Amino acid sequence: MEVDEIFGDSRAVELPTKSAIYVWGYNQRGQTGRTGKDRDLRIPRQLPPELFGCPSSGGAGMRTRWLDVACGREHTAAVASDGSLFTWGANDFGQLGDGTEESRKYPEKVKYLEKVFVKSVSCGAQCTAAIGEPCENDGSTSTGRLWVWGQNQGSDYPRLFWGAFKPNTIIRQVSCGAVHVVALSDDGLLQAWGYNEYGQLGRGITSEGLQGAQVLNGYSKYLDEAPELVKICQVACGEYHTAAISENGEV
Q1: The pLDDT of residue 58
Q2: Low-confidence ranges of the chain (pLDDT < 50)
Q3: Assuming Cys at both sites, which of 49, 95, 105, 186 could form a disulfide with 61, CB separation 3.0 to 4.6 Å?
Q4: Are 85 and 106 in contact (CB under 8 A)?
C-alpha cells in the first residue's frame, strides 16, 4: 500500500506567515497590555499589532510572528521573529529593562538589546532573562548569550551575564523562578543563583540571603545514593523549586 493511500494526498502545507499574542486575567499593573473596557479580561483576546509598531493589515503586520512569550508576577515579555524583545507591565525593580522603575501598560521594545537577536525570554517574579546573539557576529562570539535584569540581577538594563560559566559559553535555556534563576549550557551543565531558602538552587543545603552563581555538580536518583554528574537537556523553575530532564529522559 502506498503512503498516499494511507494518509491521503501528500500536499505542501503553507505555514502561516503571522502569529498573535493573546492575553487575559489580572491586569492591575498593565501586564495584559489592555486598557479601557478591555482592562479586565476573562477570556483570551489578541493584542493588536499596532501596539508593537506593526500595521494591522498589510506590510510588516502581515509578517509579524512571535517566537516566545513569558509572564512574571506582574510583567510580560515577548520575542518577535526579527529578534526584538518587548516588555510591559510592572517595573518596580527594573524588570522591563528600560533603565527606569516606571511601570508601563503598553509593550515597548527593549532598546538596549536592539543590536541583539533575542531568541527566548523568561520572567521571574520581578526579573527578566533573555538569550540571544549579536546581530553582527563574525563567529567569534557565542550564539547563545545570556542577559539578565531586574530584581537581584544587578541592573535595570539588560547586562551580559556569564556567572559561573566561562565567557562565550553557549547558553541553551534559561528559566526564572520567583527569586532564583537557572541557566543551561549547550554542553548540558546547569548553573543557578538567587535565593535558596527552600533548596531551589540544588546545592544540597538551604541558605539565607542572595547566593551567587554556581554550577550544579551532581544529581541523585535516590536520596540514599551519592550524586553523579549527568548531562541536562531541559530545565524549568517553579516559584521556589526547580526540575530538570537529563539526556536519558530522566527527571
Answers
A1: 45
A2: 1-15, 57-62
A3: 49
A4: no
